[in-house]
Amino acid sequence: MSTFVVVGGDAAGMSAASKAKRDDPDLDVVVFEKGEWVSYGACGLPYYVKGEIQTLDDLVSVTPEEFREDRDIDLRTGHEVVEIDPDDRSVTAEGPDGEVVQAYDHLLIATGAAAVVPDIPGVDREGVFTLESMSDGRDLRDFVARSRESSPAEQPDSGPACHFLENCEGPVAVVGGGYIGIEMAEALAHNDFEVHLFQRGERVLKGFSEATSEAVAEHLRDEDVVLYLDTEVRELAGGDRVEAVVTDDDRLPVEMVLLGTGVRPRTGLAESAGVDLGPTGAIAADRYRETNLPDVYAAGDCAEARHVVTGTPSWVPLALTANRHGRAVGQTVAGNPSVGGGVAGTAAVKAFQMEAARTGVLDHDVAREAGFEPVTETIDAKAQAGYYPGEGTVTVTLCADRPTGRLLGGSLVSEFGEGAVHRSHALVGAVTEGVTVAELANYDLAYAPPFNTTWDPILTAAKVLEGEL
Amino acid sequence: MSTFVVVGGDAAGMSAASKAKRDDPDLDVVVFEKGEWVSYGACGLPYYVKGEIQTLDDLVSVTPEEFREDRDIDLRTGHEVVEIDPDDRSVTAEGPDGEVVQAYDHLLIATGAAAVVPDIPGVDREGVFTLESMSDGRDLRDFVARSRESSPAEQPDSGPACHFLENCEGPVAVVGGGYIGIEMAEALAHNDFEVHLFQRGERVLKGFSEATSEAVAEHLRDEDVVLYLDTEVRELAGGDRVEAVVTDDDRLPVEMVLLGTGVRPRTGLAESAGVDLGPTGAIAADRYRETNLPDVYAAGDCAEARHVVTGTPSWVPLALTANRHGRAVGQTVAGNPSVGGGVAGTAAVKAFQMEAARTGVLDHDVAREAGFEPVTETIDAKAQAGYYPGEGTVTVTLCADRPTGRLLGGSLVSEFGEGAVHRSHALVGAVTEGVTVAELANYDLAYAPPFNTTWDPILTAAKVLEGEL
User: Fold this and answer.
1) What is the ipTM of this complex?
2) How many CB atoms lie within 10 A of CB B122?
3) Whether residue A202 is found in the same domain as residue A157
4) Contact B53/A389, CB-based, under 8 Å?
5) Cβ–Cβ under 8 Å, residues A36 and A29
6) Do B136 and B253 lie in a common domain?
7) In terms of CA atoms, which chain B residue is nearest residue A57?
8) I want to staple B459 with a disulfide (CB 3.0 to 4.6 A). Which of A35, A300, B392, B455 is the partner?
9) Whole-angstrom Cα distance, residue B321 to residue B310?
């Protein structure tokens, strides 16, 4: 009997464990998870804080008990793996009853990513949060609940006054304009907080197109988020509790700070065992997700994967890739070697009443480094037929390689419900298959007046870009 | 100086004329249109009848004056081309001032399609409509307006009473459960008519998957449309005016009948000139849209095109293909030979508060005839992440070839706004590029909780079907 050991019980780990056991019921599957939660939808945490999801349990797709009883997986929560011994083919974990040593035939490292805490004074004060774990989500929701119980209107001395909005909850800061920052800005604004969002770079959603970033930034301002672009946070000032965000120009009193400053792969355990990291700093793995150590796999947010456009290693820590690659590893260790596919750098975000998605390569420097000659065009189109009721628009940015016409990447933004995200699915296919913009422009896409113009905005963008090549 | 003559001034014809003149301003471009309207959005007529679009002019994207003055196109409305003489390279048209003969260097036949009037007694009675032309739209809107001015509640003798609904406008019949029939059912029900929909076959939307047809049929019934499946209409009885729909089982008093029984290509003019028709009965053309006669092209609803899955000629009379192929012909005659791409048989429809789309090959007989071994699977998925608010579902049907795994076709249905149609864009790409379901299942599609489950329903469907092969 063969043993499959998994380190880390979230998306990649539990997908692998479940798939391996399902495909080969004779396999012993052991999962070590240092926390108490497994297989939870961390992507849902902003909506839990917002109040649209009522309990943390709602975010759990399969409970530890179900994994143990229904799926026959030896899931050991509260166990942190502290060492991998590849020569002995074993791992050592520290649990509530001390150390355990577990032998493996196949090992999956699925240690995920950790929130980056920027190196600025004051990040350890009370009231400074990241949003990484379920307990972070709980702390943030508690903060929201407490603030709403004691709103400044009733207790004027309880905290700093709002700067711009009347009758708001005390001002709060979000540091970082990526999707966590934007989703949390929505969650907090929805709870009547005056939200100040600080972005070090010139635009929010920097991986998306400039047109997308600008549309989202304008919408954030319309939704009363105070946006500070090109602004470095120098200090989170205060006593025990954070009291103010300090920038070069300003000292802004706040009641809370949410750090949405990115994540980094958790690679320490793997490195100690001699697992190679790749050029991105995440764990290197082949297309079967196997590392340089035989029978040791890596999947999910801790690992890199091949980019479908550049063909080079890329680190895009997102839920679908974790699920997909975890599942593929599960199939592989169950005896059916499977690849999980590359990554396209696809991402989607809801920002208040807008939605945006991106895929492939949009950054010209990245494109040039991969040997392409990038050209980018952006078009605005009505979301429905010209004569059909509705004022919605879809903005499409496409980037292509001039000599070949190959589509390299795309970014879309629209009002929420107007289809920017679902339309991006077609662009993922096009960048994955190496389709040219001329070919894309000839796609026989669906058309009906309530859904698009006769030429869907994607087709119009492809036609326009084709004309530029 | 070269002359490009176009027969027919709607989507294909005006796209070709505009593109040719834009790309080669020295070209003389002459368009003959037998009616008075050109370049109008016939797809919008149901929404004009519904009342969501206020005037027929709203459906016109470019007016005859704009074509003449801004685009320098010699557009002759009210001129019906009655003969093409390919040896003389000329056409003869009858206009208000008698016959004109016009020489051509390049000729485009874009005569469109005509509504099929079924061969049953009574179709020529007053109150029996088709929905093909702008004047059909006007007549239907007038009927709606008149009926609403004199509703049965106020004038009980004005027409047949409703059968099932209280306080409705007089009962009306829609014959045909394709998208025109369904869009018109929505338009009429929205105006408080009791709508009876008769479908000869076993299901509505027969080109879609069975799961899609069933979901839409159930929704039509929920919206109080009385649905008669597997029901042949034998007669439209009455005096001058239609008074009843007669089936084998029933005689249903109605105030109006809308025939949505399909269209057929208008090929008479072309046939007389010696233009070959293809196996579908529409005009045969190569990938440049050229017919068997040199410099004579055919595009739009009168012509067939190569199907991207079967590789065989296919006749799919829809707006995007007409625009795309017309534009390609325009480029070609302007000196830049261009193909307009194949057709995938893609279609989309809004049905009250649902939306549906289909693409590729779903019919197993058609698939087998093309040499495939079709396997079909259908899945239901939540439209958002499991924990995210909303009860919407997306139902995805995929059909693949067993030995190769190639995706042959797909059909999706969801509540309106939940993305069935925009998601179908990705399936169009997949069937066009010959992607397998295993490859599709590994696509790095966008995910965020407000838009889908981690595995978008498309991916889940591909995974499930992959498991069946």
Assistant:
1) 0.96
2) 19
3) yes
4) yes
5) no
6) yes
7) B387
8) B455
9) 17
Where a domain ends, among A203, A227, A261?
A261
**Interface touch B444/A47, C-beta < 8 Å:** no
Mean pLDDT of A50-68: 94
Whether B253 and B276 share a structural domain: no
HSE-CB of B373 using CA atoms within 13 angstroms:
6
Query: Using the 8-state DSSP alphabet, how is residue A283 labeled?
Result: B
Q: Do B450 and A308 touch (CB under 8 A)?
A: no
**Per-residue confidence (pLDDT) for residue B153, from 0 to 100:** 52
Residues of B marked active site are found at 43
Say which of A345, A450, A458 has its CB closest to residue B350: A450
Residues of A in contact with B435 (CB under 8 A): 429, 433
A345 to B425: CB separation less than 8 angstroms, yes or no: no
Q: How far is A458 from chain B (nearest CA, A)?
A: 9
- Do A275 and A390 reside in the same domain of the chain? no
**pLDDT tens by residue, chain B, 469 residues:** 899 999 999 999 999 999 999 999 999 999 999 999 998 888 999 999 999 999 999 999 899 999 999 999 999 999 999 999 999 999 999 999 999 999 999 999 999 999 999 999 999 999 999 999 999 999 999 999 998 777 655 545 556 778 888 778 889 999 999 999 999 999 999 999 999 999 999 999 999 999 999 999 999 999 999 999 999 999 999 999 999 999 999 999 999 999 999 999 999 999 999 999 999 999 999 999 999 999 999 999 999 999 999 999 999 999 999 999 999 999 999 999 999 999 999 999 999 999 999 999 999 999 999 999 999 999 999 999 999 998 899 999 999 999 999 999 999 999 999 999 999 999 999 999 999 999 999 999 999 999 999 999 999 999 999 999 9
In a domain, B46, yes or no: no
Nearest alpha carbon to residue A261 among A196, A198, A315, A189: A198
Domain containing residue A376: 353-468
Taking one residue from A and the other from B, the number of pairs with CB-CB distance under 8 angstroms is 225
Instruction: Give contacts of A456 with chain B, Cβ < 8 Å.
Output: 425
- Do B223 and B145 lie in one domain? The reply is yes
8 Å CB contact between A181 and A231: no
The token duo for B447 is: 């995910």
Q: Looking at the partner chain, which of A41, A426, A442 has a beta carbon nearest the beta carbon of B426? A: A426
Cα dihedral B41→B42→B47→B51 (10° resolution):
90
**What residues of chain A lie within 8 A of the CB of B451, using their CB?**
348, 350, 355, 421-422
Is B341 within 8 Å of A388 when comparing Cβ atoms?
Answer: no
**Burial zone of A268 (CB within 10 Å; 0-12 exposed, 13-18 middle, 19+ buried):** exposed
Per the listing, tokens 């609403």 go with: B148
User: CB A53 to CB B318 under 8 A?
Assistant: no
Q: Across the interface, do B350 and A448 touch by the CB < 8 Å criterion?
A: yes
Q: Kindly state the tokens that stand for A370.
A: 């991969």
Residue A138 lies in a domain: yes
Whether residue A46 is contained in a domain is answered as no
Q: How far apart are the CA of B234 and the nearest CA of chain A, in angstroms?
A: 32
Q: Is A468 left (phi over 0), alpha (psi -120 to 50) or beta?
A: alpha
Q: Tell me if A53 and B389 make a contact (CB, 8 A cut-off).
A: yes
Domain's final residue, options A261, A292, A323? A261
The CA distance from B216 to A55, in Å, is 35
Give A445's contacts in chain B (Cβ within 8 Å).
320, 346, 424-425, 428
In terms of CA atoms, which chain A residue is nearest residue B351? Answer: A450
In a domain, A423, yes or no: yes
Strand-pairing partners, residue A197, are A174, A227
Check which CATH number belongs to the domain holding B225 and give it: 3.50.50.60
Residues of A labelled catalytic = 43
Query: A355 to chain B nearest CA, in Å?
Result: 9
> What is the number of domains present in chain A?
3
Residues A15 and A98 both lie in one domain:
yes
How far apart CA B271 and CA B281 sit, in angstroms, is 11
